[in-house]
TrEMBL record:
Source domain of life: Bacteria
Keyword Mitochondrion belongs to the record: no
Lineage: Bacteria, Pseudomonadati, Pseudomonadota, Alphaproteobacteria, Sphingomonadales
Name this protein carries in UniProt: ETC complex I subunit region
Gene Ontology annotations for the cellular component aspect, listed alphabetically: membrane
Species whose genome carries this gene: Novosphingobium nitrogenifigens DSM 19370
Length: 94
């Protein structure tokens, strides 16, 4: 049974000014079972350890080749275009 996963590029955080790790492509596995509360602690958890695995690749082609090699069914999420809001400092005071 192939494990479903998704390949995507991490979007830039609104609080982030740098461009570190923005070119990495991530392969993240989909949850195999729903989370349920632990009766002792009340924390949500499951027996699915694949949910904790996130693999980093330098390009989309590398991530796709890895998925093909290990028979992982993937959904590729395209990177959203970056929109720049160009304004001058004086616009903050209008």
């Amino acid at each position: 049974m192939p494990m479903p996963a998704r390949i995507y590029q991490r979007p830039k955080n609104a609080l982030q000014s740098g461009k570190a790790r923005m070119n990495d492509w991530l392969l993240e596995f989909a949850p195999a079972e729903a989370k349920k509360p632990d009766p002792l602690t009340g924390w949500a958890g499951s027996g699915d350890t694949q949910q904790q695995v996130v693999l980093r690749f330098g390009s989309e082609a590398e991530a796709r080749a890895y998925a093909d090699r290990y028979g992982i069914e993937v959904h590729i999420t395209p990177t959203p275009p970056r929109r720049l809001k160009l304004q001058s400092y004086a616009d903050n005071f209008r």
